[in-house]
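Practice problem 4.
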C-alpha cells in the first residue's frame, strides 16, 4: 500500500467533500464548538482553508483528510493544520517528512497543529514540539 498526500484544488472540492466529510466530522468532537461542517466547507470554498487527502493509490480509496490554513505573521510564515483525521495514523505519519519538505520549499518556517491531549506523544516522534498550553474558562 502506498499512501499519497494530495492537495485538493477548490474546483474539485464539491466532488471530494463526500469522501472526506466524515473524517472532518470526527475531528469536530474536539474543537470546542468552534466550527460546524458547513463553516469548514465555506472556508474551503473561499480558499482561507485548504483540503488535503490521504489517498491509497493501490485501493483507490481516501484514508484520511487534513485541513490547513496559511498564517502570515510579521516575522514568519506558518502552515497550521486545523483538522487531521484518518483510518490509521501509523500509515499517515510517514507522509509528514515529505510534507515538511514541501512546506519548507514554499517558504514556511514551521508547521503547527493545535489538538487534543495525546497529539504531543504521536507528533513528538515526528519532530513536533509542544509550545504552549491553551486554557479556557467557559462563560
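Answer key:
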Amino acid at each position: 500500500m502506498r499512501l499519497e498526500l494530495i492537495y485538493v484544488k477548490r474546483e474539485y472540492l464539491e466532488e471530494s467533500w463526500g469522501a472526506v466529510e466524515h473524517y472532518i466530522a470526527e475531528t469536530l468532537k474536539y474543537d470546542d464548538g468552534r466550527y460546524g461542517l458547513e463553516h469548514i466547507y465555506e472556508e474551503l470554498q473561499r480558499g482561507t482553508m485548504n483540503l488535503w487527502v490521504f489517498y491509497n493509490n493501490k485501493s483507490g480509496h481516501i484514508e484520511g483528510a487534513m485541513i490547513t490554513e496559511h498564517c502570515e505573521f510579521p516575522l514568519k510564515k506558518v502552515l497550521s493544520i486545523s483538522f487531521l483525521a484518518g483510518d490509521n495514523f501509523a500509515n499517515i505519519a510517514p507522509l509528514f517528512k515529505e510534507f515538511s519538505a514541501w512546506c519548507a520549499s514554499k517558504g514556511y518556517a514551521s508547521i503547527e497543529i493545535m489538538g487534543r491531549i495525546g497529539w504531543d506523544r504521536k507528533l513528538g516522534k515526528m519532530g513536533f514540539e509542544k509550545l504552549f498550553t491553551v486554557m479556557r474558562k467557559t462563560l
